[in-house]
Amino acid sequence: MDPKLNVTSGSLLRLELPCDLQAVRPAVEACRRFLENQNLDENSVIACELALAEACNNAVEYADEAGQTHPVQVQILWTDDALELQVLDHAPGFEWPTSVMLPGTASEHGRGLFIIQSLMDEVSYLKGADANCLLLRKWLMTGAGKDPGGPETQVDWLPSHGYAASNNREGTPVHDPLNSSPRPSLEHYLVAHELQIARNIQQSLLPQALPSLPGLALSGYCLSAREVGGDFYDILPLANDNVLLVVADVMGKGVPAALFAATFRTLVRTMADLATRPAELLSRINRLMFSELSGVDMFITAQLALVQTHESRLVIASAGHCPVLCANEQGESCMISPEGMPLGILREAIYKEDTLALHDGSRVVFYTDGLIETRNPRGEFLGQAKLMQWLCEGVSLGLPAPELKEMFLAGLQQFQGSTPPTDDQTLLILEQKAARTNGAEVPLREALQLQVP
Amino acid sequence: MTITHQGGTLRVSGLEELAAANCGLFFSALAAELQAQPGRIEIDLSRTEFMDCDGLGTLIALRNNARAHNHAAVVRLIAPAASVKRLLQLTKLDQVFPLDQSSG
After folding, report:
1. Torsion angle of the four alpha carbons A3, A70, A263, A198, in this order, in degrees rounded to the nearest 10
2. Which residue from A53, A106, A114 is facing B60, i.e. has the nearest CB?
3. Does ipTM come in above 0.95?
């Protein structure tokens, strides 16, 4: 009945438990010991223990006969500023309620989701075809905890101390890995040198120039919070003036994240013949990268958007990535989030496609969660709603893609003030140019009709 | 887990956890004792290191059942650990179960 420990390191725990209530407690106790060993404060340990217990209980209690034959997987990942708890189950799944309420005091059931939501800072639930993933985040506000000798922290004692400082939030003590774990300075510089090389590789992944497309404009931005990050975007010109837009975020930062980003980018490019079927492309890449990713407990969220220029539409597939935001000059806006698990979670994950018609003057925004999770000096997140508000404002002003990007960046700068970003920030804007009455620019569809008698 | 009767009081102690895995057993052990219509049920939680939502639900079920047998029945929780207390407060069940910090 004991949980099976797969990998345990300074910053990551992964375990599997059989689909049996008796197995939940030992598994959750193993998680608690892991968190205690990381010097997490007691309140947070209690919160995580309870949230995990509720999540695992649900995973076991709601599994159907087929689901009971699969283990429940639990993963705890210690990132720079948050604890990520992940529970993967094979129950039929459910829709996470938009608001979770406490039942009456005489009710014997129905408090589990409330408890999870109350104890965690962020809860996301991905319902898949044959598996579901509950992702819980608890922000580490003090920088306390975290074993200074752990593998993730090795990057923190670089000469570029900006990073340790960047984790500081006003009024909170800083955990200074330099003081608690002095290392020979030569090693610092060697690691820094190596990271600089990796950073150069990562920068080379980004498009050096944006393609010029009839009736369309593109503008992109990608900022790494550390020497090397896991965010990138790519633009692949295809036949027929079509183009594939790629935005990805490899979980974690540093060299491993950049290397996975490079692998992912290469796979997309080598399988570009599948680019007209973005969901199929994601599912192939997932199968190819699954072993590598799951072997080191990493995953990638990604979005592929096929721009069908002549049809004025987008075909979008998503691997657990943030929704695409779209607004047009008629004042309409929408968010698109096709179903699909992050890459590296399930070998046979299923990806769906959504289609978006591009009207004249439409602007579409692709981004990574680092952008909406930008914090202001008070520690508040920017959030998706704010991004949508900026988009609608920009569109109502008729800003072309590059100006819209500048507006976003100015807004971001103002919002975060002097707080340096702790996660990579990526932004890619697509504009379907509007028809102008002066005739300087003919809308795409009409131009095509003119060419074809 | 030890169950004792003293006058109209039913007392449970030595409970190491009250969670999904054992709350069924806990409930069936106590349900039999409710036939005696105790007016006061004391659950000593001083050794209870962990409780989850199913454990909470079982305490509610116990209270509902005790009241069905004896209108005036009261369930008291004795000396809960900080984590259990926090759970009760979070779910506002500290308003239902009077907490008694002494373990006596």
Report:
1. -20
2. A106
3. no
